[in-house]
Fold:
Amino acid sequence: MASKPRTLYEKIWDAHVVERQDDGTCLVYIDRHLVHEVTSPQAFEALRVAGRKVRRPDLTLAVPDHNVPTTARLAADGSRIPIADPQSAAQLAALEKNAPEFGIRYIDAVAREQGIVHVVGPEQGFSLPGATIVCGDSHTAAHGGIGALAFGIGTSEVEHVLATQTLLLRQSKSMEVRVEGALSAGVTPKDLILHIIGVIGTAGGTGHVIEYRGKVFEKMSVEGRLTVCNMSIEGGARAGIIAPDDTVFRYLEGRPYSPKGGDWDRAVEWWRSLATDEGAVFDKSVVIDAADIEPTVSWGTSPEDVVAIGDTVPSPDSFTDPSKQDAARKSLDYMGLEPGTPLEDVAIENVFIGSCTNSRIEDLRAAAAVLKGRTKAANVRWAIAVPGSGLVKQQAEDEGLDRIFTDAGFEWREPGCSACLAMNPDKVPPGERCASTSNRNFVGRQGPGARTHLMSPAMAAAAAVAGHLVDVRKLSGG
Amino acid sequence: MDKVTVIIGRAIPLGLKNVDTDVIIPAHWLKTVSREGLGKGAFETIRQAPGNPFDVEDFAGAPILIAGDNFGCGSSREHAAWAMLDMGLRAVIAPSFSDIFAGNAFKNGILAVELPQEQVDRLLEVAKTDTITLDLENQVVTTPYQDRFAFEIDPFRKHCMLEGLDEIGLTLKRDEAIETHEQSRAGSLPWLDAPQSYRRDAA
Structure:
C-alpha cells in the first residue's frame, strides 16, 4: 500500500515523535543540543535546584560565542587575557563550570574549534541531516541548510531538553518557498533571503517550517544554504530547511563528529530518502522568480524593509496598510533617512563582516575579492571582519585573506557573535550607520541608536571601499 | 509555574506592530545568570521617549499589555518574558505572536491572547480608561462594557496554566517511552546516537 506523500519536514518530524497526546501535543526527541553562555545559566541552575541531571550529555555540545570579546584572548606569553566586563566574565565562567559539572563537552573560548555555535555545529559534523537540532538561539534555523530540522528555543526549553532530551511541541504547518530560475551574476544567497523576507514579510512564516526548493538551492554551496536557512526566523518561521544532497554529504564527510565507516553509508542512504515526495502538499506556497533579485539592502528597522540597491528609500505613503505606514515613518525617523533618497547616496561610518549569517569561509572570500587592492574610504571609521570560528579564521589566514582585510583598513578579529547584537564590546555608536552582514536591523540591535543596513559580504565590502552603500557590481569590473 | 485563572486590571495600550525581543529587553541586559531583576531594562528604548504609555501613572503595575501584530519576533531570549514578568505583566493581547515568544510566555505563566485586529483596536480604546478582564477557563476577554471576545488557546497549554503544572516534571514521568524511542533509534539510526564515538581531532 502506497503511503501518503510527505514533505521533508514531515519525514523528519515523524521519525522523532516519541508520543502523541490526544490534544495533538507531541513529545519529540532531540538529537543534538548546542549550548552557549547567554541562554543556558538559568537552565543549569534550575536543574541543580531540582536535583536533575542532563539525560544525554553525549548529544550536547557547549561553546561560548555571544558574550566573548573578539579582541585577542591570549597574551604574548600564552596566558589568558581576562575579560574586562565582570558580568560577561561571570557568565562565561558559569558555562565553563556548568558544562563539565553536567558531563557536557565544552569548547573553550581559546580553543581553535571555538566559534559561533551555528558555524561550529556543521563545521564539526555535530549537526547532521535529518536530525532534530536545538539551541537557545533563534538563528538555530541555520542548520536547516544541511537538511536538519533545527530551531531556536527559550531557556525553559533548554532546561527541558537538558533534563529529558525531548520537547513538547505541536507540529508546525509546512510552507514551500520555491525559487524559479537562476540568480544573476553578483547576486548572493544573502540577497536572495533578504528578498524572500521582503516578499513574505516578517510574520510570513509564523507557525510554519519553510522548505526552500528549486534549482537555485540545488546549485548553492552549503555555506550559502546555511545563510538562507539562518534568516528563516526573520521571516517568522522557526525553522527553514533544504533537502540534503551530495553537496551536503561531501561537506560533512570526514568532519570530526560525522558518522564514519559503515554508519556513514547507512546515514547517507537514509538522508537521501528524506527529500519531499512527489505529490506532497504544502500548507502554503510562495513562488519567487530569481531573475527579479538584485543585490539587496535594508532601509528600515525590520528585516522585511528591503529594496534593491538601485532603488530609493520608500515613502511611508507607498504602503497600503496604515500600521505599516506608521511603522515606516518611525523606521525612517530612527534611521535618519528621507523618502526618495537613492540608497547609493547613503554614507556609512561602520562596516561589520561577520555573524552566524555570513562569517564562513565563502563569505570572507567574497568580501576579500572586493577588497583586494583597495582600501576603506576615509569616512569609514570602523571596519571589522570577524570569522565565524577559529577554524574559519585559520583557513582564511592560510589563504591570505586576513592580509587583504587588514591592508584594506579592516580589523581582523577573533571568532564570536561580535557586533551583530551589541552584547559584547563590539558596538556601533549612536546615530552612526553600519553596513552589516548580520541578520537583524532592529532598533538598537547593534548598539543604542545604531543604524543597521543589512547586506551581503560583497556588498558590505563594496560599501567600505565607497564609503556609502553601492552596487558591488559597479566595483567588480574596476 | 503559578496557576493562571483570571487576570483583571489595567492594560498598557502599546499597540505597536513587530515588537521584537531586542526591544522588549536589549542584549546588554542579557549578561545576567539570573532570571530576576530584568524589569528595569524592559522596553528600555520605548521608555526613553517622553509620553510613552509605560510612564502614564494609571498604567503603573498594569498586568496586561496590548500590542500589534507579530509581538515578540526575533531573538529567542526568554529574558523577554522574564523582564515582562518582573515589571508586573501577566498577559499580552495582540493579533499575532512569534512562535518562540508565545512558547516562552507560556512557560512563565504569561497568558498570550490572540484576537483579531478590530478587537485589539477596541481594547486599545477601552484600555485608556478602564480595566480589562482575561478569563482563561472560559477563554474570553471582557471589558466593563458589552465587549466579550472569545479566544483560542492550545488545550495542553491551557491545562498546564490552569493547573500550574511543571512541564519537565510531566515529561520525566514519560521516561519509559523516551527510553523505548532511544532504543529503537539506536537500532535504526545509530549514527544519531553516538557522535562522540566518531570523534577525532580535526585534520
